[in-house]
């Protein structure tokens, strides 16, 4: 569980660090970014917000573009951004070189089908190995929040709903809310999980909500109404209906004029940070 | 003076737009980014902050990484970020493909030497053509501020000092403060301006301050003290001495632990935006 420091840069009175480590879960080297706010003194115990990024992203996109560090520094939140899939020459990618599967597109699940099953266990990496690594190496406590964007919004919802009690706060930006019934999800789930759609239910936020709502965990979701992926890929209305059916607290905000980009994320990240901080510092 | 809209994305209630236009000054097509805050209604007259980026940058780095739009939206400031040099297949670049000269490295001057003199007139582009374009196409007034980073900090200082009255506010992050006596500047000035160092004085903030201080224009400069370029390339102490010698108001803040990156810029951009807004809205 050792971390190799790749870079360390002062930011908003804290430090933006990047690390490489060998992941036993993914059987490859992984890079992650950690923002340590100024409160991260050696004897501190700070809560951690895990951020899961979307298709094609690495650990860098959120940290560089979301503008989250300013308020995280004020709120005393550690931010952790892992990569979006296993990587490396030994990790198989999309056979056609597509950007929506394989490298950069791990979908935060545990693959069962070959050749993906050896490396593509991003769920276990995010939920188990990564927090263990973070909690062993940084001045943090075990109060965890999780959020993400697009594929990472799906990941945040699924990681929290599958693991009751593991996260104290949950939010998402433009999540792939119902991957079992959208092209991105159907392509990924068919390959990673096989053709049997029953096996998909454990990896779909809408199906999970029906079976195991997390009524103690209010969910904040922002979605731009000018997002070009809204109707075909994201389907927030299905999530809203699934939440309503089981009494799951969900605030879905349709933000007029916003698209799917990090300009949208940056515009509302402060609200999400405050949503998480309220639960994590409580 | 027509602008071709390349993209338009909602951000913090306003719009982040990118445009292409034909520059008569530079004799090539140029791309620029404009952030229009929510106050930019058709009948508004908002002040404009021009941002000049550093070596290797385009119009994108500042807009994506500095986190300036959040407060610009609150303060009602239009942000304009041009490219850092003329571009295109007809524009000669560094003969050795170096990153510190030519494309991405126009140094905000008017070149006099061949083959650079045909296109490399970034000073006139930034000071004349760009404001004329912006003021003809957007709901802005003629209250202009200017700032920048590294090579762009040099550019901001030089553009403001050479053109009294044209800018109402001035600041810089880690500027190349004395380019006549640092490797980046000596390489660029020798090629763009020739070997006669007398011709360099009009493009060096320290030399300009001695000849024509702008005592009505207080300058805010931030500089990280862990910046690896500090002693050899940037030389803020020379700027500070030049300002003190002529009574030029200059606030130089050495920020402990910060490097040369956009993490540094993002950490202090709010102070600069407030510095500019105070003068521009006054």
From TrEMBL, chains A, B:
Whether Hydrolase counts among this entry's keywords is yes
SUPFAM superfamilies this protein is in?
alpha/beta-Hydrolases
Q: Which InterPro entries match?
A: AB_hydrolase_fold (IPR029058), Esterase-like (IPR000801), S-formylglutathione_hydrol (IPR014186)
Highest taxon of the source?
Bacteria
MF (Gene Ontology)? carboxylic ester hydrolase activity; S-formylglutathione hydrolase activity
Per UniProt, the keywords (alphabetical) are: Hydrolase, Serine esterase
Q: What is its EC number?
A: 3.1.2.12
Pfam families given for it?
A: Esterase (PF00756)
- Entry GO terms, CC: cytosol
Q: Which reaction does it catalyse?
A: S-formylglutathione + H2O = formate + glutathione + H(+)
Q: Which residues of this protein are catalytic?
A: 150 (charge relay system), 227 (charge relay system), 260 (charge relay system)
Task: Provide the GO biological process annotations.
Answer: formaldehyde catabolic process
The text of the family note is:
Belongs to the esterase D family.
Q: What does this protein do?
A: Serine hydrolase involved in the detoxification of formaldehyde.
Q: What is this protein called?
A: S-formylglutathione hydrolase
């Amino acid at each position: 569980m050792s971390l190799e420091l790749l870079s360390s840069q002062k930011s908003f009175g804290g430090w933006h660090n990047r690390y490489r480590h060998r992941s036993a879960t993914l059987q490859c080297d992984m890079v992650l970014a950690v923002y340590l706010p100024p409160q991260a003194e050696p004897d501190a115990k700070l809560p951690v917000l895990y951020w899961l990024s979307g298709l094609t992203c690495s650990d860098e996109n959120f940290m560089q573009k979301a503008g989250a560090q300013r308020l995280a520094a004020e709120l005393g939140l550690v931010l952790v951004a892992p990569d979006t899939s296993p990587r490396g020459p030994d990790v198989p990618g999309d056979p056609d070189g597509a950007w929506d599967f394989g490298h950069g597109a791990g979908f935060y699940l545990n693959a069962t089908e070959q050749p993906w099953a050896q490396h593509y266990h991003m769920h276990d990496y995010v939920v188990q190995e990564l927090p263990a690594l973070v909690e062993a190496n940084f001045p943090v406590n075990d109060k965890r929040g999780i959020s993400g964007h697009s594929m990472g919004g799906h990941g945040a919802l699924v990681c929290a709903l599958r693991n009751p009690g593991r996260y104290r706060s949950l939010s998402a930006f433009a999540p792939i809310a119902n991957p079992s019934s959208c092209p991105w999800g159907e392509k990924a789930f068919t390959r990673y999980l096989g053709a049997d759609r029953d096996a998909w239910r454990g990896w779909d936020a809408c199906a999970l909500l029906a079976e195991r709502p997390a009524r103690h965990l209010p969910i904040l979701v922002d979605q731009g109404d000018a997002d070009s992926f809204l109707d075909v890929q994201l389907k927030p209305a299905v999530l809203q209906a699934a939440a309503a059916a089981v009494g799951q607290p969900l605030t879905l905000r349709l933000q007029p004029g916003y698209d799917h980009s990090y300009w949208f994320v940056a515009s509302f990240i402060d609200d999400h940070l405050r949503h998480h901080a309220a639960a994590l510092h409580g």
